[in-house]
Amino acid sequence: MLSDIEIAQAATLSPITDIAGRLGLSVSDLHLHGQHMAKLTQSTVNQLHTQPVRAKLILMTAINPTPAGEGKTTTTVGLTDALNLAGYKALACLREPSLGPVFGMKGGATGGGYAQVVPMENINLHFTGDFHAISAANNLLAALVDNHIYHGNALQFDQVSWRRCMDMNDRALRRITINQPYAYDTGFDITVASEVMAIFCLATDLADLTHRLSRMQVGQSTKGQPIFASDLHAEGAMTALLKDAFQPNLVQTLEGSPALLHGGPFANIAHGCNSLVATQTALRLADYVVTEAGFGADLGAEKFIDIKCRQSGLRPDMTVIVATVRALKYHGGVEVADLNTENLQALSTGMANLKKHVDNMRQHFGLPVLVALNHFTHDTEAEVALLQSAVESWGSSLHVCRHWAHGGKGALDLAHAVARMAQQTASPTLLYQDDLSLPDKLHAIARSLYGAKDVTFSAQAEQQLGTLAETSRGLPVCVAKTQYSLSCDAKLRNVPEGHTLHVRELRLSRGAGFVVAICGDIMTMPGLPKQPASHRISVDANGRICGLS
Amino acid sequence: MLSDIEIAQAATLSPITDIAGRLGLSVSDLHLHGQHMAKLTQSTVNQLHTQPVRAKLILMTAINPTPAGEGKTTTTVGLTDALNLAGYKALACLREPSLGPVFGMKGGATGGGYAQVVPMENINLHFTGDFHAISAANNLLAALVDNHIYHGNALQFDQVSWRRCMDMNDRALRRITINQPYAYDTGFDITVASEVMAIFCLATDLADLTHRLSRMQVGQSTKGQPIFASDLHAEGAMTALLKDAFQPNLVQTLEGSPALLHGGPFANIAHGCNSLVATQTALRLADYVVTEAGFGADLGAEKFIDIKCRQSGLRPDMTVIVATVRALKYHGGVEVADLNTENLQALSTGMANLKKHVDNMRQHFGLPVLVALNHFTHDTEAEVALLQSAVESWGSSLHVCRHWAHGGKGALDLAHAVARMAQQTASPTLLYQDDLSLPDKLHAIARSLYGAKDVTFSAQAEQQLGTLAETSRGLPVCVAKTQYSLSCDAKLRNVPEGHTLHVRELRLSRGAGFVVAICGDIMTMPGLPKQPASHRISVDANGRICGLS
């Protein structure tokens, strides 16, 4: 069996100008990055945004992730390929992969098997440099803060809250002590966790980007007043650093479907989906836009709707929930080592997780739902049949997808069902109104989506509710909790009952325009495993990258 | 008067494919980065390197720099434009600018006036991402080191010497304390000071790059043994991160002359000139290659010859030394505020600095020399005449250049003289033989080039002479001293006499293949000034960058 990189490298890619041509774009709409990658120019993006939305927006989400793997990105790619194969004009809209995890456990994030976006080596490494630009903008601001203090300039800092970032899994940088201009503890986050990344993905245009950057809080004065990026005159230079990156990237799938990859904020402390600019652009370039939200539907889809859609006015037309037999058996209590064995009982139990997400999407967001079963080799016919009839009994439908093994033709059934369903008129809604209080917003999310019986606050969070009452008014809340459970306890699989959402800390992401509710320990700088993936990566005598996964 | 960025933005650029066409290259030889920047593909580079050298290599160097400014980059651009204007095929070979100083005091590094490489905003900001790739490779290695210790893997570190880097002027990162896996003091250097950058610029090809990366020392074991990057299996993944960056970048001057910009190591702790790959490529693409070495001839030209040429077998055909009336008056004792006033006496005194460099190039390197006088508005006819007759009395010739104001046609006199002189057969030599001891190499440099009466060593350096005796055998020495003086005391202008070169510390750059002799305080992470240049930078309503200089 070929590895993902071998499949990707064996593919014959079309010139990116041809891919653009299928979207009605010409070479003058592109800023080329070699033969197979391009950015859409800012003027093309601006011009497209004056046109009406043309596409149906399909939100790809999933059950709660498990170690068994679900395959949301592969399904997004597979569905897009299948829609194009079926004669529709479809475009995938995805996040860019983060560089750090490529050398760690996770590897790249360009799909897998015969459902990949390519050129995978470029996309997984530096791609068009967007994340480096975001790191530079973030770190220029940090340098300006410490430089301001060093020179004894006008602002009197009592506390610096702005952290540096790097697109690397570097555990040692989580907590560092800086010794100059004065000693204080700070640290680095991975770039995808920077507020600059969240802003980059929510800004409507360059002016909005500048405006959002300017209002970020970087620390507090000795008089207890917040200090903003604008107080350091940082937003102009930061925008200059981000200007080119802000243009969406066009690549292709293995089957030549167009894909826009742009931005990639964390899905815990941020909202976890590709840039608004890319989505808005995509909606003017195709009839179907398939986009993905991070983690499971409790985090990713909720934030997609309640943060990204709320801020922008976008609404998805329908949602596809990805599940696998293996992952549902895991939710049903089976351990990873035993997932290849048929287990109808466990599947039957674990299906509850899927049902909860299907219900959530329909009841709380008013969205039509299809279930995509990402098929694995060891899935038995009995398992698939059991799941199929269950999903149908809930009033939805299940579509077996084999895009990993067969590309677009493996997901044709899903594609036809999506095309049918997307034509229905949906009435998507937000989960809560802007004017609710912060605790009420959290209750709405926790009770209706997570099935929690209550929300509690630490003493710190209680205090922050007071401090933030004014500044957070009208803003959506971004829950940072484990992705592995509907609760905030990673060990509680399937559909836990009677649990409580405990909010440890609240943080205002003023530039991004949301309040982060931190529930549990959230890691904003990953580490590398004992045997890093980097050990296997090399460049061969023909200049070809090997060992990337 | 227009600013540099206004001149650059008003220019009409040719498609980079046209610029490549003038070098006999087609679009298939290019990895495009938009319309005006491209990398030459690795296969094109490999193919060119099998061809014989075609061009004369002209080394652009200068007197000791002063706050008055000399204009080495503008003169490199102006001479290249003038040679092309005169009907020769000429190509400039330059370093890429570092991002950090763009927000600090120095600003960008793309020339000035009507002698610039463009697009200046892109080149000065992220360009094609090379420096970000170098930062990532450097920092992956750092993460692997600390991760190895964290997991208690096989190597027992007693001391970690590998530092992180960032392409930002961030004073606060000079010295940081890491708290995990165990507390130790380390810090960040600016990316141009990373050994990865030096290696990137000296490697002959990708295999040599990997080999050099593998032999870098990252620390010392508890048994006192050196630990190398190869012990962490880092070189493969680092090469994968550097692979695309390793391809030279093609841009153009304001007049459409081709220019290769590639790499940019510090000129103190490293050798300070563009990549060997770019120079070797350029020599197959034109009849005249004009390249620049960092700082004055005592540092830049010496290292160009004794490090880059020694390792590669390259030899320049001649050298051009850039001087200004203002800078020579400064060497003659005039303060910055008074440089606009005619002062023949001070000029006459300060000319000694120029004469020393002219003599050095001829006597110690066997190179023909021309002097380029970069003309400034306030230079008087009497001053120019005085300098001209002095230079002629030394058996050289002086050429007044007005490329800053007039572009290539302002440097035609220099171009004709260069074309004549480069046809003569020179017998360039290295300053010292490989098999001299380290102290003897330092004596050769200090006595003959700097005019020092002696070389002394700190106790630490004395001890290091012993430790490094074996491992440094046959390697050239890279002197890290102030650029402002022929001595190691920045305050001693002109031609100081009776001074001593004091070596404080020796460091083996094992991957780069040289020993750094640190004389005085060398800053490897700059800071920002009280009013950073970033304050003035912004993006206007048309998406155009303003305020960059």
UniProtKB/TrEMBL annotation, chains A, B:
Name the EC number(s).
6.3.4.3
Asked if the Swiss-Prot or TrEMBL record annotates the protein with the keyword Chloroplast, the reply is no
- Annotated pathway, please? One-carbon metabolism; tetrahydrofolate interconversion
UniProt keywords (A-Z) are: ATP-binding, Ligase, Nucleotide-binding, One-carbon metabolism
Q: Which CDD domains does this UniProt record tie to the protein?
A: FTHFS
Q: Name one GO molecular function term.
A: formate-tetrahydrofolate ligase activity
Chain residues that bind ATP: T66, P67, A68, G69, E70, G71, K72, T73
Catalytic reactions of this protein: (6S)-5,6,7,8-tetrahydrofolate + formate + ATP = (6R)-10-formyltetrahydrofolate + ADP + phosphate
ATP-binding among the record's keywords? yes
What the record says about family reads: Belongs to the formate--tetrahydrofolate ligase family.
Provide the protein name: Formate--tetrahydrofolate ligase
Origin organism is Methylophilus flavus
Biological classification of the source: Bacteria, Pseudomonadati, Pseudomonadota, Betaproteobacteria, Nitrosomonadales
